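Just curious: can you write a single protein's sequence together with how it folds?
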Amino acid sequence: MMAPPPPPQLMDELVEEVLLRLPPDDPASLVRAALVCRRWCRLFSDAGFRRRFRIFHRTPPMLGIYCSSAGVSTFVRTSSCPPIANRKNFDVIDVRHGRVLRTRDFRGPWMNVLVVCDPITDEQTELPLLPASWDLVPSSVGWNASVLCASNGSCDHLDCNHGAFLVVLVITVSDLIYVYTYSSEAGTWSKPATTQGLADRPIDWHWRPNSAVVGNALYVKFQYSKSFLKFDLATQGMIVIHPPTSRHYEHNTVLVATEDDGLGFAIVEDEKLYLWLGNASPDRHVGWAQSRVINFKTVLPDSAYSKFDVVGFAHGVAILFLRVNDEIFTLDLKSCKVRYICKDNGRMNDMFPYVSFCTPVGAAYSSEGLRVGTSCAPQTT
């Protein structure tokens, strides 16, 4: 007897509908699907399909976190993501819109270059030193920097990791604040926007490596007070925002960008997490309303813990990072689910989540993750 003919192949359109529904938070499953046959691999390799995949899911997964301490950053994977480029002797300053901002030396960008990189492809852009000559004692200067898409609020950030970007550098000397902006399109630093007398007190020239982009404004938090700076990317104007009163202000606080493009503020007091939302008024002041209170003892594992701290926020996926004694957990603000991440041992000062779509193109997969040939479209919002 002759063997029956093979069943007819599904149309590419139907196969795409199936592949679109694969979970983006498990890149390994995408690779396995791409390896089924050349036809499926060709579908994955199509830029139009990858774009439709991101649009279909909208919310990218969190692939991992950069943990910085003492001038060294390590990457901790939280999914089956590919091996991430993690160069030695670099410290991460900011992660956003698929890009990582690093520096070799925290003495300042007037003495050492800042580097913007794609951690999947390891493509790097070294920024020039500041055009000014800073004859300053490093201990008397506070600074922070943020990287973001250069779209001026018109981008959905689904596929902009290889497009134009900005780096905003904030420098404080006593009560003077300077803000420089680097444009990848121009390849140079702008002249500084400057203001005086905005800090609450002289010691406020230090900054926490925690920032948020809301609309066309960048918010950067002071290290030693509750306040944070709002920098308007269009007008170059600066004002200081004062969050709600709290007994604890040096740590236990992070800025939060909400899903509806609003500004939020998370703070830990005693054994509870308080979430506040801000509303700007016509006179440029921000009014605050408490939105949620979460008791840690109702959501965290029952153990002998005594100290809580909020150490980071994954913008776009509404996930907070918590330090509980010597352990790091994530708290999903939508579901209130808690997930253990790793041990801390006091070495993780700052955490920067890497939120990204990752789709394969002719990739191979092993126990170590995706191999060379992977195409990823990072997204951090």
Q: What stands out?
A: Residues 259 and 299 are 23 Å apart (CA to CA).
